[in-house]
Amino acid sequence: MTFTRADALDVAHILRTTAQAEILPRFRNLSADSIRTKSSQLDLVTDADEAAERVIEAELLRRFPGALVIGEEGVSRDASLLDGLGNADLAFILDPVDGTLNFASGLPLFGVMAAAVMKGEIVGGVILDPISDDWSMAVRGEGAWIQRPDGSSSPLQVAAPVPLSQMAGNVSWRYLPEDLRPTVTGSLPKVAMAADLRCAAHTYRQIAAGYLHFSFSSSVMPWDHAAGWLIHREAGGYTAHFDGSPYRPVTRSGGLISAPDRESWQAIRDALLPPRA
Question: pLDDT grade, residue 76 (50/70/90)?
């Protein structure tokens, strides 16, 4: 069993059709009772997240019968759904609205993400930007590209390595342990620029296209990273946990740093998380 470009395009069109039906009509049109908190005021879920996940799951199962579908909102109700990820012949990891805080705030910086996983290995990744109406995509071993609805495409390539002082990146430190927060935030002046887009989908799109050099994330939930990790990797990039170990979607802790290459990764790691005395 393989996962092909044609399969990835089928997933892409499912995400787009669902976004047009369930997400975009609710953008800047949410009532107060259609926005709810999960773990905190910065961790939200909306009617759009839940409706989109239901539709995407149903359509994926129609196209790929027997697949395991793991959505962020489903896991929030039943965490045991993640337990089958490492052994499934084919699984899909979904983030129906990534950047929900932006979406609920009326900020047009959100995405829809899906990763295809076989026996614990990520084999396909799709990130839809519903506003620009295109996809960042990758199939394992076949590169990464931007795909447009008219059928045109263009390859993705990470930025060329530069010295640490010239690097621009996205730093998400919200879920760092409190004792590490001053270390990371106090080290940000070592790089040229560090922002937080509050959206993993757009962060991965930016680093895979070479518009940012790196990303730093304290959270590693698979719906935030699986699709983007493959797209960035197929665009030439390098990602590892804070301790240098390789990323796998079954891992649920350890932070992640993505960079153009191994040397750039090490420079970011040493700058933002220097060894403690």
Answer: confident
